[in-house]
Amino acid sequence: MSTAAVASGPLTRNTVSARSLAQPVVFGEVPRTPQLAFFLFILVNSTVFLRPAEIVPELLGLPIYEGLIFSCLFLSINIVRNELLPQMLYHNPTTICVLGIWLACALSHATHGSVVDLKDAVILFFKTALYYLLFVACVDTPTRFKLFLLNTACCAAVMVGLCVVDYFEWIDFTFVTHVTDRDGEDETGAVALVLRMRGTGIFEDPNDISMLIVAAIILCCYFATDKMFSVLRGLWLLPMGVLLTGLFCTRSRGGLMSLGAAFLTYILLRFGRGWSVLAGALGLIALPVIAGRQGEIDIEDGTGQERIQMWAEGLDAIKSPDIVFGIGQGLYQELAGLVAHNSYVHAYVELGFFGGTFFFGCIYFSALGLFRVTDPKLELRHPELHRFAPYLAAILAGWSVGLFSLSRCYVVPTYMVIGMASSFIALAGPRLQPACWLIAWDKAHVQKLVVASAGLLAFLYVFVKVFARFG
């Protein structure tokens, strides 16, 4: 396996600014950020799922999220600054990719001379990039990492639980509304309708909340197998049941595909290829019976074909000079009438190959780092990080598959998952035997990223060419 250079001596990230760029940077057991900053970041993360103004209308209009995130930044500004030092960026290429997306948002409009759109795009993604930077700065020890996971699992389960209660009309919450979608035709030829559960805030799309549900289910499985909870581990079955019910209520095909990818990845890493193949075969057999509408995945007709046509329209738009920097962040809907419903297509079209490669790079480096953590030649000496590795790989796989059916290139939840992987890789490297940097922004890695990105874009072009049915 090719890894970055093995560090000599103890690994620590403390006092990075005082170190020569030729010296290894490592991670200490002592938190670099103040405890209050970490607490504020946990509150920031909580408001992503549970918005106080939606639950308490009297708080409407108060900049609660902004107040929390900038307070957190104020307390951890030196650590965030350290994350942007050249040596830190060299060993965390995911951060370079996040900053590259921010630059690509600006360039996508600058190349078209649109100053107003440029300003809006820069401000929009700044909030997301700031969340990611605070994540990698504040979640800097295994204990904090686990507390963050616990917070995410609980907040997601509570939010989904409220939506399920409202969906079944047990309690009517004014801040939760659901959507009725067409679902093919009934026996008489009339359009059939289906009620789909939506979430709150940025999870109002049924497909959005379904991706969150999948990630939360994996987290609940992780905590349900945690010996620290002793006899109370069985209590995690309750939120898991709520989350699975919520996933069914979304009627999301993308969510079901995401769940399948997540669990197959976990089984592959935990039990091996044979069990993964068996589980996949059994899942395909049971899918039509268990999933109903969600199991009916058809790319020749219906919404599946409509989405492929939208991908084709977008990709056609960058067969021009826009192939480099795109048509402009946020302009896909003006081009095709709707967003792409595919984050990879969306990023390549709006940000060009330049920005699309950075977006893909966030997934690429996250997956590469996790793959190397599981290398048999390396031993991860932290038991809890070792135990969590296949669960995190499952979350990343599920989210990455879900991005094929949603345009979520710029929103916080996507970078929450990317931040999980980035923080985990940073924590795992120095605890490996031998200790090493797992990924780096060097010539070899960048070349592989560019080739893989070009391959993905070519695949998307061929896919829509073959399967899009116009007229």
Structural class given helices, strands, pairing? mainly alpha
Low-confidence stretches at least 5 residues in length (pLDDT < 50)? 1-28
Order of helices and strands: HHHHHHHEEHHHHHHHHEHHEH
Helix content: 55-70%
Task: Give the CA-based shape.
Answer: globular
Number of strands: 4
Strand order of the largest sheet: 1-2
What's the Cα radius of gyration?
22 Å
Biggest pleated sheet: 2 strands, antiparallel
What's the number of helices?
Answer: 18
Mean of residue pLDDT? 86
Give the termini distance in whole angstroms.
Answer: 49 Å
How much of the sequence lies in strands comes to under 5%
Question: Which features would summarize this protein structure in a list?
Answer:
471 residues; mainly alpha; two-stranded antiparallel sheet; 64% helix; disordered N terminus
Structure description:
Among the domains are: 156 residues, no CATH class; 173 residues, no CATH class. Strand 1 and strand 2 form a beta hairpin. Helix 15 packs parallel to helix 17. By secondary structure, the protein is mostly helical. The chain is globular and about 65 Å long.
At a glance:
The chain is mostly helical. Among the domains are: 142-297, no CATH class; 299-471, no CATH class. The protein has helices at residues 35-49, 52-55, 64-83, 86-90, 93-110, 115-138, 142-167, 206-224, 237-250, 253-271, 273-291, 302-317, 322-325, 332-336, 343-373, 383-402, 412-428, 443-467; strands spanning 179-185, 191-196, 379-380, 432-433.
